[in-house]
Design goal:
131 residues; mainly beta; single chain; 50% strand; Cathepsin D, subunit A, domain 1
Length: 131
């Protein structure tokens, strides 16, 4: 079992966790237990060395703010909360182009966590993961 301490939630009441693409490019994701899929900002993908033209196609998804169109990409390796996924599909959205600025670069969704037992303890500010 692995335990991760997280900061106090941000002003937006979001729990932030660290992530990395291929162990090189580090960024921050919001833990969103209501999100079915992991979504990252297109700038993270671009600065990680991926070509934005290599999309697997578009997908309409429903968010708390309405329906948006995202691109789908396979990430060679995504790490977060001590979990590493290879050839992992993420949804990519251009946050800045749509006026979204925040302390994080996307959300880690349930598709990333699905093979693990996890517990978010808001009192202790820790996340435990049991693979």
């Amino acid at each position: 079992m692995k335990t991760f301490i997280f900061e106090h939630p941000t002003e937006e009441s979001v729990t932030i966790v660290n992530a990395a693409i291929e162990g090189k490019y580090k960024f921050r994701l919001a833990l969103d237990t209501a999100a079915t899929h992991t979504t990252i900002d297109s700038n993270v993908l671009y600065f990680s060395g991926y070509e934005l033209k290599d999309s697997k196609g578009e997908l309409e998804i429903e968010t708390a703010n309405g329906i948006i169109v995202v691109e789908r990409y396979n990430i060679e390796q995504l790490e977060c909360l001590g979990i590493s996924k290879t050839n992992f599909e993420v949804q990519v959205y251009d946050f800045l182009a749509h006026g979204i600025t925040s302390d994080y670069d996307g959300v880690v969704g349930l598709n990333f966590l699905k093979d693990n037992k996890f517990c978010v303890d808001l009192v202790k500010r820790e996340i435990t993961i049991d693979s």
